[in-house]
Amino acid sequence: MKQARFVAGGRPLEGRLVGPGVLVDVDGEEHREVDVEFRLPFEPGTVLGLALNYADHATEMDVELPTEPIPFVKPRNALLPHRQAVRYPAGTEYMHYEAELAVVIGRRGRRVKAADAMELVAGYTVANDVTIRDFVGNFYRPPLRAKCWDTFGPLGPYLVSADEIGDPYSLGIRTYVNGELRQDGNTRDFMHTIPELIEWFTSFMTLEPNDVILTGTPKGISHVYPGDVMRVEIDGVGSLENPVVADG
Predict the structure, then answer these.
(1) Strands 238-247 and 86-89, bridge-based pairing
(2) End-to-end Cα separation, the chain, in angstroms
(3) Which of 39, 151, 226, 230 is 20 to 30 A removed from 246 (C-alpha atoms)?
(4) Which residues contact 201 (CB under 8 A, 6 or more apart)?
(5) Co-location of 97 and 53 in the same domain
(6) What is the 3-state secondary structure (H, E, C) of 138-198?
(7) Do 15 and 102 reside in the same domain of the chain?
């Protein structure tokens, strides 16, 4: 099931995707995707990111492969629904997208073993971990100043149930900028699998329902500028589109 939250006719609604471009709300009324204003598909808790989880991305960044996950937190102020504008801070030299599969937690878990970890997964959504490369470096680790600006965490448009995805390790993941393919990878290339990540995070913290794990981005990052439109696609999960606007 692909669940969404949206506004139609001035009313905040919840519903699901029932066909190409067609949403049905909880009262059975149909709405066209193009006519609604999307909200975040659920109310996120803690959003945990990974600096490197694809070897090819580490290679393009010319950094040493990490032996364990490199985490950071994406704060609530950064989160942004489908179609809303990402703001480009004045004076920025290099801002880029990062297409990511987002894992949504459905059950509370602490000290969870990898063998049991998928029982915690409610589903998946699409994420764009927008980053200012100007502030990425050892001095700025963890990379909060690079990744925590307002609007730097587009998420959605749907929460897709885990049973609908099945195998999360064979999903094509792509980014287009103004219709041009810039990033083209596959989740089969994860360095750390979802169960491994859940086991690692819950070894020192409790995961709660609606917490989110961003699973990293493949190679192919590039500059975006005000006036550009970013579209992140993940097979079976959806397409997340956001324009970039100048923020003086």
Answers:
(1) parallel
(2) 40
(3) 39
(4) 48, 69, 71, 207, 213
(5) yes
(6) HHHCCCHHHHCCCCCEEEEEEEEEHHHHCCCCCCEEEEEECCEEEEEEEHHHECCCHHHHH
(7) no
For tokens 């880029």, the residue is 96
Whether residues 12 and 31 share a domain: the answer is yes
User: Which structure tokens are listed for 227?
Assistant: 């006036």
pLDDT digits (tens, 9 = 90+) for 134-180: 887 655 467 788 999 999 999 999 999 999 998 999 999 999 999 99
Reading phi first (left if > 0) and then psi (alpha if -120 to 50, else beta), residue 57 is in: alpha
The structure tokens 């509370």 sit at 108
Same domain, 161 and 202: yes
Residues 240 and 212 in one domain: yes
The answer to whether 187 and 213 have CB atoms below 8 angstroms apart is: no
Could you tell me the residue range of the domain that residue 133 belongs to? 42-247
